[in-house]
Amino acid sequence: MLIPMLACGAIITAVQQPQLFSDDDKRVTMTYWSDPQRYRIVPPTDFRAKGLWQVRLTVEGSTWLWNFNRARGVSMKPTSDSEGHEERDKVWDAWIDAKVNYDRWVAGQVAAGANAIVVGNPPTVADTSVPVDRPQIPGPMPADMLAFVQQSWTSTVGLNQTINPPPGPPPIFAEAVVPMEYRIKFEDAEISYQDNCMRRAKYPYYRFDEGVLSAGKAVRTMPEKDLDKLIQMAGVSPSEARVMKAVSILEGGFDSVNTYDTGYVSVGFIQFATLKDGAGSLGQLLLNYKQTNPDEFQRDFRKYGIDVTPLGVLSCLDWQTGAEVQGGDANKQIIKDKRLIAVFQRAGQKSSLFNAAQIRIAKNQYYPANDTINIGLAGVSFTGKVTDFIKSEAGMATLMDRKVNTGKIDVLIPVLQKTALTHSVKSFADFAKYERQIIEAVKYRRDYLKDQTLSQPS
Fold it and tell me: DSSP assignment of 224-244, as one string?
């Protein structure tokens, strides 16, 4: 999941955005999508193997896990479940695990009963995340946990503090659903998706059950010459390219798309996202592509009903009415109408210029080399750039991975402060001597110090 740059957020909400599609534009798009062969909704092709009804994490349960973990100060990662570090958390996490397990068993029983009535035969592929035998009922919530979830909590962003409502009691964490398959046919591509995406039982980022996911073609599987050509088109150096290749492996391909999680609409090899305002880094990517290659943008996006305002706010059409919606409403339309997210995936499959734009914007927004770091120590202020002390590609990849997924690298500040005290550092350049231990302290989702394709700290 990509966390985009937040600039212009206040402007986006305060300024009335212009309408971008003329009536003639709308007629072209509505005529194109009116062909019934271009969009079909059917049961998944594998429903006899997996069951028509299947068990999924609930959006409400996922959201509660997010709020609960934030309230108790537990950090979360997309790739693994989170556990608290205080003594109380062991008991709390055990109760949550028991409830999740029981809820999944109940949902599994509902799914099995429905499949027996409608499909007849049980699924041939078992969902191993659903208990076969009835688990023990979790029992009452621990008293201190019950008191905790009824209290408001404070979050801090920069110098701003926000008082948030209590997490409240946990909802049901699992339900039986019927995933549906969506088939979109362009003149030069056919794309399909399933909604009700399967996520881990305690995944805290799941927000839209009608959202979809496609990892696309991973960057690492592309022919080297094709990728090198895109890199050259984007104006990226060989060293920067190695770092970006390493980070992109975690996110998918140029044609990857995701509309089910906290990024709202996420696209591309490092998941450029709109977030709730319908703008973000994906809006900046589209704006750059539109300004740099207007004819190709018309061919790849406007023709199908997607545009972007001069402020980088997404705009799209409801093909049935011709209504144009922007920002957060465009998010909703793209999540709802799978034709629209397929437009992004088709562009990633067919347009080298769009893919080069992805690389260019990724470097501009997320490559951390020139980021300024300020630390205070014993009344003395140190200021420098990442390149003053991060000399290796492995170090740069570690920080870029954090910046792509959290929007910041301020985790460096306490690490640098501790390093300065331990080793009597006098300048930012001195930190370069301790690059390896600094990188070890700020690792996020992957250990790039073990990646032999990247240069390593000396």
Answer: HHHHHHHHHHHT--HHHHHHH
108: containing domain: 54-150+164-177
Q: What is the pLDDT of residues 368-411, one digit of tens each?
A: 999 999 998 777 788 899 999 999 999 999 999 999 888 899 99
Burial class (CB within 10 angstroms; exposed 0-12, middle 13-18, buried 19+) of 225:
exposed
> How do strand 257-258 and strand 372-377 relate by DSSP bridges?
unpaired
Is 318 in the same domain as 190?
yes
Residue 191, phi then psi, degrees to nearest 5? -130, 140
Joined together, the tokens standing for residue 266 give: 């996420």
Length of the chain equals 458
Return the residue matching tokens 């985790």.
411
Cα of first residue to Cα of last residue in the chain, in angstroms, is 32
392 and 357 both lie in a single domain: no
Q: Are 457 and 439 in contact (CB under 8 A)?
A: yes
The whole-angstrom separation of Cα 348 and Cα 346 is: 5
Whole-model pTM: value is 0.86
